[in-house]
Structure formats: C-alpha cells, structure tokens
C-alpha cells in the first residue's frame, strides 16, 4: 500500500512538472504575413465584425486578405 502511494505521488509530481514546462515551439510568433493581415483587420474604423451582416463581414475579410501577402 505504501509503495503504491509513493509511486502515485511520484507519477503525479512528474506529470505536474511536465504540464507547467511549455516548450518554446508551442508558443509561435505570427509570421510577417500574418502580422500584416492582423494589422489590416485592426486598422479599420468601422463596426466590429461581429456586428456586420454575413455578407459585409465576408467582404471585410476578403478585402483584408487582398491587402496582405501570406
């Protein structure tokens, strides 16, 4: 019984330390193309996209995609 408890505690401790150690490859920075696309989306002074009609929201995204090379 004591051995099972120790083994469980060691397993839990190893899993916790692995969960908190996020490797840098899982935290990518946006590429220059993606950054330009996001800048184009955020640069407008119109309504927020969630307040637009579907047709108008698609037009905004299409225009932003044309303005940035990905």
Helix content: 55-70%
- How many discrete structural domains? 1
Assembly context of the chains: single chain
Task: Give me the secondary-structure category.
Answer: mainly alpha
| Intertermini distance | 59 Å
Strand content: under 5%
Poorly predicted runs:
none
Query: Which radius of gyration do the C-alpha atoms yield?
Result: 23 Å
Gross morphology: elongated
- Number of distinct helices: 3
Order of helices and strands: HHH
Mean pLDDT: 72
Main beta sheet:
none
The number of strands is 0
GO molecular function: hydrolase activity
Protein name: Alpha/beta hydrolase
Keywords: Hydrolase, Signal
Give the key terms.
single chain, 70 residues, mainly alpha, 3 helices, 0% strand, elongated, Alpha/beta hydrolase, hydrolase
Gist?
This protein has 70 residues and is mainly α.
């Amino acid at each position: 019984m004591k051995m099972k408890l120790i083994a469980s505690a060691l397993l839990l401790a190893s899993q916790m330390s692995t969960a908190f150690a996020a490797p840098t490859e899982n935290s990518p920075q946006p590429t220059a193309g993606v950054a330009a696309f996001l800048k184009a989306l955020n640069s407008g002074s119109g309504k927020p996209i969630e307040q637009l009609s579907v047709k108008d929201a698609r037009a905004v995204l299409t225009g932003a995609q044309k303005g940035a090379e990905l």
